[in-house]
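Q: I'm writing a short explainer about Peptidase C1A papain C-terminal domain-containing protein for a general audience and would like to include a description of its predicted shape. Could you first generate the structure from this sequence?
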Amino acid sequence: MKKSGLFCVAILFSFLLNAQDEEYATGLDFSQEKYESVPLSAPILTRSFTRLPKSYSLKPYAPTPGNQGNQPSCVGWASGYGAKTIAYAIKNNWKYNKTKINQNTFSPSFIYNQIKAYGDNNCKRGSFIADAMKLMNNSGILKKNEFGYNPNNCTTKPNSYALQKARNNKIATFERLARWDNPYNLVSKVKKAISSKNPVVIGMFKYGRLSGPGDLWTAPTVASKGGHAMVVVGYDDNKYGGAFEIMNSWGTRFRNGGFFWVRYNDFKNYVKTAYVLVDNTGSIPNKVINNNTTTTKKYNTISGEITLKLSNGRSMPSTLSSEAKRNFNIVKATKNKKLKTTYAINKSYSSGTQFRIYLKSKQRGYVYLIGYGGSDKSVNKLYPFENFSPFFNYTNSEIAIPNEDYYIEFDNKPGQDILCVLYSKERLDINSIISKAKYGPSDFVANIKKALQYKTFKGNEVDFNTNKIAFNASSSSYTSKVVPIFISVNHQ
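A: Of course. Here's the predicted structure. Afterward I'll give you a sentence or two in plain language.
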């Protein structure tokens, strides 16, 4: 009888665990085409992942986990209520201030009600994370106390006033962290994002059952159910042999107060999509008053470094132009055949010489690389690569061009080639800039400067390094956004 009683208890316990999952909806739709339309994060060097902290958590910035109930709105909860709220709390330095954070959560309905399937007035169908990110990027989002959540109603749409107000809460950008069927380096990329204070919205696929005892999710024997959108809030290399902490949207009775852990290997196998959300910094000019004198603090800063290395590992030495500062904002075409650049590589290299370009951004920002061939006056975009984001999301991040395995080779057309690196505080229309560089009335350098003249830092706001190709720029003007660096490379 005892054995029979224990057996019944075990069956009942198993039934209750499965019923807990059935109590809540999920609501994530998957599309390879939609996922791969989102730019990949910058392909930073492998060594950039080797010095990550052993553990890091954004949980002190997270709101109390909410409950989506029976509405398939997990995408709105993960992207808006979860990731956007966390990013907003980080921006406002509300660490551990749960009251303040909970008072400023963002609305899951603002997202779900606008991106759900057309004609789904009964709230039965899910949505895509990519659509949620695009909505917040292009149109912004309202707070939950401005656009409430009703699990039984998904037809209410924001009016024109609400949409205008939502624009104040746009995110800066978003990126995907891996390819559809290739989770290579996904764990390291998510850890890098989290340790850089960027929440990551994930889509779990065919995960079986999420509910259970304790705070660790284990992979199912038979995978059947999926998908579900959630937010990664932390990681710990020593917990469960290495695991991510995830915030769900099934209330605080789920697992450990609404949070649970997933081992790295299970994460790699069951997470189909991963997006990093980057919020706007919201910087404004700071007025500082000292002794009745008002000054404007230089808040607009940007810095970068470029290195050219031969295939044997040696650097290609360069010299800073003596007129770099004076000519920085001059857009007039040069009368000489040789174009004036910021730096010049000291030595001429023969055709067939192989080299690699390393671009480093010392802070978050956008980086572009344009190549100019002096022999045929060709202009080409060298970076970002196709389907990659121009955004450098991490401080002191570095990429290699063409990549860590291959080199650029000088062609058989001798002459003065020019590399133009654009460091920017905002996204640029790189195709428009290239078009103006190709077809403008002046030379390549002058055409680029002309295209950017209203966004470029002033020459006296930029400090150039004389020992290497590097700079630091700072300005009190909100219009200063871009630093163009021109590098002359001669080959014979």
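A: For your explainer, you could say: The two ends are 93 Å apart (CA to CA).
Q: Perfect, that's easy to follow.
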